[in-house]
Amino acid sequence: MSHLQWNREFALEQTAGDEELLEELLVLFKDASAGDLAKLRQAVAEKDASAVVEAAHSLKGASASLGFESIRSLALEMEMDGRKDSVACAAAKLEDMAALLAEVAKL
């Protein structure tokens, strides 16, 4: 899995150049993504494809708005596979997602 691909300039554009707002949004993303990761883990454990879709969709949207391309694309893969009533992608790539979110946590 590739490392975190963050388009910080895009994220800053979303806040009209407000660095403090960007920092606040990052804190919110870190909190929310931790919850989504926990939901993904539970969904995989329970083989619940609809829960995978829900958690992956949440991660996809939040990461897209902040320019986290690697997280967005991985969440999209998980979501699309979940929509096929499968948890295989989420199961196979769960630790990749965890690693990417751990990189975000260090920002």
Number of DSSP-assigned strands: 0
Would you identify the regions where 5 or more consecutive residues have pLDDT less than 50? none
Q: Helical amount among residues, as a percent range? A: over 70%
Give the count of helical stretches: 5
Total domain modules: 1
Q: Enter the CATH topology name.
A: Four Helix Bundle (Hemerythrin (Met), subunit A)
Give the C-alpha Rg: 14 Å
Q: Would you state the CATH class?
A: Mainly Alpha
Order of helices and strands: HHHHH
The chain-level structural class is mainly alpha
N- to C-terminal distance: 19 Å
**CATH architecture assignment:** Up-down Bundle
Shape: elongated
Major sheet description: none
Strand content: under 5%
Oligomer: single chain
Describe the structure.
The chain is mainly α and 107 residues long. It has a single domain, classed as Four Helix Bundle (Hemerythrin (Met), subunit A) (Up-down Bundle), CATH 1.20.120. The chain is 79% helix and 0% strand. The chain contains five helices and no strands. It has helices at 8-14, 19-46, 49-65, 69-82, 88-105. Helix 2 (19-46) packs antiparallel against helix 5. The longest helix has 28 residues, at 19-46. The chain is elongated and about 40 Å long. The two termini are 19 Å apart. The mean pLDDT is 95.
